[in-house]
Amino acid sequence: MTLQAIALNGSLKAADAEETSSTDRMIGVIGDELAKHGVALGETIRLASRNILPGVSSDEGPGDDWPDVRRRILAADLLIFGTPIWLGQMSSVAKRVLERMDAFLGETDDQGRMPSFSKVAVAAIVGNEDGAHSVTASLFQALNDVGWTIPAGGACYWVGEAMHGTDFKELPQVPPKVAETAAMLASNAAHLARLLKAERYPGT
Amino acid sequence: MTLQAIALNGSLKAADAEETSSTDRMIGVIGDELAKHGVALGETIRLASRNILPGVSSDEGPGDDWPDVRRRILAADLLIFGTPIWLGQMSSVAKRVLERMDAFLGETDDQGRMPSFSKVAVAAIVGNEDGAHSVTASLFQALNDVGWTIPAGGACYWVGEAMHGTDFKELPQVPPKVAETAAMLASNAAHLARLLKAERYPGT
Amino acid sequence: MTLQAIALNGSLKAADAEETSSTDRMIGVIGDELAKHGVALGETIRLASRNILPGVSSDEGPGDDWPDVRRRILAADLLIFGTPIWLGQMSSVAKRVLERMDAFLGETDDQGRMPSFSKVAVAAIVGNEDGAHSVTASLFQALNDVGWTIPAGGACYWVGEAMHGTDFKELPQVPPKVAETAAMLASNAAHLARLLKAERYPGT
Amino acid sequence: MTLQAIALNGSLKAADAEETSSTDRMIGVIGDELAKHGVALGETIRLASRNILPGVSSDEGPGDDWPDVRRRILAADLLIFGTPIWLGQMSSVAKRVLERMDAFLGETDDQGRMPSFSKVAVAAIVGNEDGAHSVTASLFQALNDVGWTIPAGGACYWVGEAMHGTDFKELPQVPPKVAETAAMLASNAAHLARLLKAERYPGT
C-alpha cells in the first residue's frame, strides 16, 4: 500500500522569493526518509504564497485559498507540518492554518469523527536558535485537538546554539542526529499511517 | 503627567464586520480603569483591518501597514495587547504583530536600548473556554524579548467553563473577579509606566 | 485481545489525605469508557504517595520509588496521565515523572526503539479555571519526545470559568461535553493501542 | 541605595553533589553584572537541597522548608530564578516553587497587594539544547501571576545546538552574546527594582 504525504511550509516568505527556505530543507529530509517506507511526498504548499484568510470556518468567502489547501491536505494520509521559529514560537502563517482547522471540530460524521481522523501528522521545525520543543508542544496540542494522530517521536527539528544566526539551509550537511531523528520519525509515521488507513478509528 | 495608551485587537474579524468583538470589550474594561489613573487610551487598532505583511523587518514594502501601526504603538507609553483565543492559543493576527516586533532587536540606540524600552505592556485576553494562561505566557515571553516591561499582574482575561461557547461580549455584566483584576492591572501598569517615563532604563 | 491501562495521578496531595481528588474522578471517567472497549484500567498510582526522586536516570538510588513505578507503567499498553492545573501549568509532581522518562531516550533496543514505543498515552486534566490546553501541549510534547503515541483527541479535561474556584469533584454530574470527549478519547485510544500492540513500530 | 538579590537554583541535583551546576554558573554571570549596578547577590538557594513539600499553602507542616525559603525570597528586592531545562521544560524542582508561590494570591494587604509586589524577577536558564524561550514563557506567566514584575529583557539563557549534549559549565568562556544579554538584564533589573523600591505599587 502506497501512502500519500503532503507538506505545509509556514515560512514567512512566499515561494517566489529568491531565498530558499530552511523549512523546505527539513521537509525534504523527512520526505526522503518517508519515501524509503513507501510514502510518497507529493506537493509542499508554501502557505505564504496562498491567500489563506483569517477565520475559523472552512470557507471564508471570495479570494480565500483555504478551501483548496484544505482539500489537498485531506486527500493525503500523512501531513508534514513545517514551520520556522520566530521569537521562540511558530510563524503566524503556520498558526493561521491551525485556526482554519478549528472548523474540523464541527465537521464530524455520524460516528463523531473529524475529517482528519485516522490521518497522521508530524512536525518539521527549524530556527536559528531555540524554540523547537515549544513549537512542537503548540503544534501537537492544536493538531491533536482537531483530530490528527501523532506517532512516537513525531517531531524533527534543528536550531542553532543560543542567540546564533545560522540557518539550517546553510549547514554543509544535515547533522547526523537530525538525520537519525528524521529516519525514526519516518519509520514511525509510515507504520502508523498504514495501520490507521487499513483500520480507521471506529468513532462513537 | 498624563500617559498615553494604545490598544491592539487581534480579533480574526475586521473592524467593519457587523459583529462586535469580545476582545474590544475587555480592552474597554482595562481602558476605563486606566483612565482612573491618568492614562488615556487613544485608539484601538483592529489588526485584521490593516494589511500587516508577514516578515521580520520594520517595513516589508509596498502595501505594508506595519510601519504606520509600529509608529503609533511606539508613540504611546503603554500597550494593551488584546487577543482572542483559538485552540488554546493567541490568534494568527496577534502573532503576526509579535513577529514584526522582532525587528526591535536590531534597532537599538547607543546604549543598546530597543524602541520599546521603558514602555509597559499588558495583556487583554478572551475566549470561550481555556487558554488564557498559555496565551499570557507566549505573549509575555515574546513582548519581553523585544523590550517591553511587564507590571505585576499584567494580564486580565476571561474564558468560560471547559468546552463552552459563550462569548465575553454576551455576558450581562463583567464578572466581579475580572473587574477586580482589571483594576489592579491598571493601577500597576499606570504606576510602572509613570516611573519608567520619568526615569528611563539607562541601557549599557 | 484485552488491553491493560494504568493511570498516574499527579495531584499534590498524597493518597492517604482525607480529601478525594478531582484528578481521580477524571481518570475514573476515562477508565469507565475504556472498559467499554476492552481496556482494563488496573491501578492508579498516586504519585505524591510515592518517593520519586529528582533526576533523569531510571534509578536514582536508595529510597527511589521510580524503578517500581516505571516497571508498572511499562507493563501496561496504555497510559492515562492525570494532573491537576496550578497557575495554568501541570503539577510539579506530574512534571517529575516526565523528567524520569527522559532516560527512555538512552534505553533503546537494537532497532532504536524506546521502552515506551508502541504504547499509547492520553491526558486527564482538571483545574478550577484555565490551563488545560497548555498542560496538554506540555504533556504531549514531552510524552511524545520519549516515545509515546498520541491518539486523535488524546486529551480530556475540565476547568471552570475564569478565576473560579469550583473543583471537578464537586460537580453534581460530569458535564455532557466532557463525557462525550472521554467516550471518543477512549474509543480512539483503545483502537490505536490495539493496532500498535498487534503490529509494533519496526524501528530503524 | 543598595539592593539585595537572591537566587534560586532549580537543578535536579542537591548542592552536596560532586558535580558543579550549569545553572549556578549562569546565576553567577548575572550576579556579577548586578553587582556593577549596586545590587548585592546574597545566597543562592539550591532547591534540591531543601525539603520543599508539594502543596499550595505557605506552610505545609512539619519538615517543610518552604516557610524558610519563602521568608528569604521575600526579604530580597530582586529574584534570580534559575532552572535547567529537561525535555524542553523547567525542572520539577523549579516548578514546585512556583506552586508554593500560588499562596501569594491570598496573602494580600489592605490595598490588595501580594507580598511579591514591587519586587523584580529575572530568569537564568540553561540546557544542553533548546527550550529556553518556552521556560521563559512558563516562568514569566507564573511569576507575574503571583505578583512579580518583569524588567525589559528579563531572561538570560544558554542552550546548545539541537540534540547536543554540552553543558554550559563546560564552555571555556561565557559566549559574548550571553554576556551582553546578562549585562543588559542586570542594568534593567537594577533600575526597575530601584524605582519600585522607592515608589511601591499603590494597589487598589
Explain what you see.
The structure is a homotetramer. Chain A has about 200 residues and is an alpha/beta fold. Chain A has one domain (about 5-200): Flavodoxin domain (Rossmann fold, 3-Layer(aba) Sandwich), CATH 3.40.50.360. Chain A contains five helices and six strands; from the N terminus they run βαβαββαβαβα. In chain A, strands 1, 2, 3, 4, 5 and 6 form a six-stranded mixed sheet that branches. In chain A, β5 (about 120-130), α4 (about 130-145) and β6 form a beta-alpha-beta unit. The interface between A and C is large, with 37 and 37 residues.
Characteristic key phrases:
homotetramer; 204 residues; alpha/beta; Rossmann fold; six-stranded mixed beta sheet; 5 helices; 6 strands; 35% helix; globular
Greatest interface and its participating residue counts: A-C, 37 and 37 residues
Average pLDDT rating of chain A:
97
| Multimerization state | homotetramer
For this structure, what is the CATH class of chain A?
A: Alpha Beta
